[in-house]
Amino acid sequence: MPEKENKTCRRKGCGKQFTEEDNKKAGVCQYHPGAPFFHEGLKYWTCCEKKKFTDFTEFLGHPGCTSGQHSDSPEDGAPVEKEEKVEQTHFAPIAVNAVPRSQDPLIILPKKVSTSLVQALEKQSQEVQAALADRVVKPGQKCTRNACKAEYVNEDSDKDTCKHHPGAPVFHEGYKYWSCCKKKTTEFDEFLDQPGCEDVIGHQWFKPDNAEQKKCRYDWIQTPANVVITVFAKNCEPDETTIKANCDTLEINLNKFQRTNTFELKMQLGGEIDAENSKVDMKSTKVDIVLKKKDESQWDTLEK
Prior knowledge:
Shape: elongated
Strand order of the largest sheet: 7-16-17-18-13
Structural class: mainly beta
Radius of gyration: 26 Å
Order of helices and strands: EEEEEHEEEHEEEHEEEEEEEEE
């Protein structure tokens, strides 16, 4: 075999192109000698298990913890997976247990947007645009789409076909597959080597900011006239915020705060309200939901 023929390193965490000449250098390969492990939505390598991930792309991109020589042999340095039933990596939606006691439909509460929130959103937008302008694709940068192994060479790389999996990786009862094509295998190497099932022109060199569901802290106070619920969420987009209520049920949907976060909550209220005369005050650091009480009686709890 010619000495300068390019090969692909098969060690976990590396995957770089190399020649026999490259392999003469000490510590040229950074790889994971351990096994990939998936448990309760977390992904990590058993050789450096203190570093855990929820995102599959970040898990695959985690630099190797051991240095050595490149190898194009599937067996050389390939770990044996730890035997344990593994679970699906995608998160289940937040369970909604509250069921409206009233048959009245939920109505959207009117929103008042403060000047501080408008200014905070303008500043956030400027920071995002500045960050995007500073991003430059460098030669050797890998496409971030699942299963695409392309690397950026020059501007012509943006005209290439990106063969990838648009779905999510699923690990369940020992099987591994992509949710978009569901070709199941028990071998981790075979799973990673499955070619993408969708073609698009152009690669994705930077990982997009995907929506992430968050838990927000919230508190409440009451007066004889009102119950005020405060949700501590910064920079909520007014157009992406919906608060609904009827006489005894409240539904909160913050579909975009701090750019990519989401928050959902549905509750049965501890008393009755006048939804028609309730409102929402949106500020830069929080959202105040002002619920008009149906009468002036004291509420023992916020939720029932």
